[in-house]
Records
---
Amino acid sequence: MNFNTLDTSKTYLITGAAGFIGYYLSRTLLERGCRVIGIDNINNYYDVNLKYSRLEILNPFEKFTFIKGDISDKNMIAAIFEEHKPHVVVNLAAQAGVRYSIENPDAYIQSNIVGFHNILEACRHHPIDHLVYASSSSVYGANHKVPFEESDRVDNPVSLYAATKKSNELMAYTYSHLYKIPATGLRFFTVYGPLGRPDMAYFGFTKQYFSGGTIKIFNNGDFENDLYRDFTYVDDIVEGIERLLCNPPLEEDNVNHRVYNIGNNSPEKLMTFIQTLEKCLSNSLGREVIFEKSFEPIKPGDVPATYASTDLLEKAVEFKPKTSIEEGLQKFADWYCEFYQLSISK
Ligand SMILES: NC(=O)c1ccc[n+]([C@@H]2O[C@H](COP(=O)([O-])OP(=O)(O)OC[C@H]3O[C@@H](n4cnc5c(N)ncnc54)[C@H](O)[C@@H]3O)[C@@H](O)[C@H]2O)c1
């Protein structure tokens, strides 16, 4: 291996620690023995019980400190940096979701732009070893060339969410250039798994099924030209982040900033994903599960395909996501049935 492995003597500040990916990353780092400072405003974009359930698992770790706060509060962020002096910062707090950015654009500017700017300012005034931050595959917009490569043009975002993520990459580049902050942006591709986000399709379909409803599939009902998504299991995301944490980019052309895709590199048709979910739920429950489906037009802001090239990531840390949807969705289905305590006979 030609990259550094995780340094457990360092303090890791993780924003969005009660969120889906933030929780898994925090747990992994705590299990390795690292000190983790978690920040989250526990907003009610989705069921806060899930956020509290994640925190319940993190709280018993002696080296975990949780701070309920908003990254758009500049003074609070500065005070946290001053007090805890993190070596590595992972910014995952953000208003996520493509469709919600049409309903509530303000939330995206507040958390993703103002909040991220506060993190950059804090890193400027309290030098750190590495800033890792969440971008998104949505920056590729409606690009047709696949797989998506980090060198592709990403100047045509089709949602405000995507525009904020692309802005984050530009802001981080500038701060890295001006203040020598080593920074790595990660373009995540549709992340799923147990304790995941209820606003995402696989979770929503499952919930809808158990409440006896019809699932709406926004793909025009055209299976030949179905949407393709690179579905990435959360453990793969965490392993990718973990490997990158202690490998800040080296300075090149006066800047030490890099952007990587983290995706499965194996896109699936939306319908294949749904049928696999049905099978996995059938396995969990011991009876056949078939969703009631209705097919709807593609929603504004949704993109036809996401497909990650992982060459850069592999070169940097010798890793590419590998979990199949059969394996990952089975873990989700088993967790869902247990978490919501569904009886085998419904
Ligand atoms: N899950 C995915 O498929 C995916 C894909 C691409 C990018 N991302 C990005 O990865 C990051 C993590 O996503 P996730 O799926 O874990 O989402 P999540 O919504 O579960 O986690 C984000 C957490 O941040 C918190 N938060 C939001 N705004 C905040 C603020 N202003 N101050 C403090 N806390 C705040 C929320 O309460 C939430 O717990 C986000 O930046 C998201 O945009 C996720």
---
Amino acid sequence: MRKATITRRTAETDITVSVDLDGSGSYDNQTGVGFFDHMLDQLARHALIDMTVRATGDLHIDDHHTVEDTGIAIGQALAQALGDKRGIRRYGSCHLPMDDAQVRAALDLSGRPYLVWNVDLPTQKIGTFDTELVREFFQALSTHGGITLHVDRLHGINSHHIVEAAFKAVARALREAVEIDLRKADAIPSTKGAL
Ligand SMILES: [Mn+2]
């Protein structure tokens, strides 16, 4: 069963994340940050990962801790659900267009966290949401999920479109990488024999 539930409590946030890698992309994400919920919904839907997120954070300060810590918890949940990674495709990539925006994501479920983030956003805010938190989220996801993650903005004018394209691109890449490769379903996809 490639499922996991992670609960993570600090003085700043209280977060529970559940994922099912073999789901259908159903979601129920509630963090108190509207735009971020919208992005998490995209992540679940386009990765075909069932995802439930409940986050209560110190939003009276700003959204930073809630967004970052949710990234940590989702990363931990993905890593736990993947287990020894037997049978997975491991790699995934996607060029995702959304109107004016095109974002490329390429990832390796390597166990080696590394984020390359070339996504300039033309505005500091999307509604009340600080756009710099998008990088914080993916940094946390990469670090705690053990994911080598490259995200590049190839085109884009509108910040909402660029960020949404980034989440969808990562989601599609993740869908591919976590899938069981039926040609090699019993093996860990590394010549080292471990990931
Ligand atoms: Mn949207």
